[in-house]
Design a protein that fits this description.
The chain is 45% helix and 13% strand. With 244 residues, it is α+β, with helices and mostly antiparallel strands. It has two domains: 10-86 and 189-243, Gyrase A, domain 2 (2-Layer Sandwich), CATH 3.30.1360.170; 129-181. It has a four-stranded antiparallel beta sheet. Helix 5 packs across helix 6 and helix 7 packs parallel to helix 9 (230-243). The longest helix has 27 residues, at 139-165. The two termini are 34 Å apart.
């Protein structure tokens, strides 16, 4: 049994476009806050465009973090967060995790196919409850592994049977055989979401009453997104802290 742990990697995020003469298009109308990231500068620009308050007349919202906190969160104009997005590579998470996460709107998924990829190449995600229970006795992990190996053996037998004797192409044999695979089998892929989607999903999935794996992976996602959107992720952290 190949045990894997969650891994979240930032592979893309919103970047501002530069003009031919230097500087960004945004700076033609609004002075950039030098401490702000491209994504959060875009959020501010989109919000100010609603009222064309380019001169930042209100000193309470003159700085980018203050503007986002006041406008997107205090006044709940969350739509401006949708203009900036983040794309992540995920691995070491379970199929159960994916099934739950795909329920959320405004996330775009590209996932490794169990139909085309041999299931034996995927690792096994041990649920946090099992992992914690087995801390003082590794034999429980061994027992868990035996059960997973039995499922994989059944999968392999069905692939061989349907492909070698049933005459099916390998991908069709796998599509049938995958029905015996456990939810703890690893899944890998890419997900993109705008900052409003992440600011809605992560507090829910990091909540103390949420699934334990969900909590762990949500905090990893939050840490990964933080350099791109520190003001927004700090707000999310505060929400999580209030519910702890």
């Amino acid at each position: 049994m190949n045990i894997v742990t969650p891994k979240i990697e930032l592979i893309a995020s919103t970047q501002l476009t530069n003009t031919q003469t230097g500087g960004t298009v945004i700076e033609e109308l609004m002075n950039l806050d030098p401490s702000a990231t491209d994504g959060e500068s875009l959020v501010e620009y989109a919000g100010r465009g609603c009222y064309e308050s380019w001169g930042k007349p209100n000193p309470k919202t003159a700085h980018n973090p203050d503007y986002i906190r006041r406008t997107a969160f205090d006044m709940q104009h969350g739509s401006i967060l949708e203009h900036a997005s983040v794309t992540l590579r995920f691995s070491g998470v379970s199929r159960a995790w994916l099934t739950e996460m795909e329920r959320h709107r405004h996330l775009s998924w590209s996932v490794a196919s169990q139909r085309y990829i041999d299931a034996n190449t995927f690792g096994v995600v041990v649920p946090p409850a099992v992992r914690d229970y087995a801390k003082n006795d590794e034999s429980y992990i061994e027992s868990y592994g035996i059960e997973i190996d039995e499922a994989l053996n059944a999968y392999n037998e069905w692939v061989d049977e349907l492909a070698n004797y049933g005459g099916l192409p390998r991908k069709q044999a796998r599509e049938a055989a995958r029905s015996v695979l456990p939810n703890c089998l690893e899944t890998r892929g890419v997900v993109t979401g705008n900052l409003r989607a992440w600011s809605t999903i992560l507090p829910l999935r990091a909540h103390p009453t949420a699934d334990a794996e969900m909590q762990e992976v949500s905090m990893l996602i939050l840490d990964t997104i933080h350099p791109v959107a520190p003001t927004i992720t700090n707000h999310i952290r505060q929400q999580i802290k209030e519910h702890a």
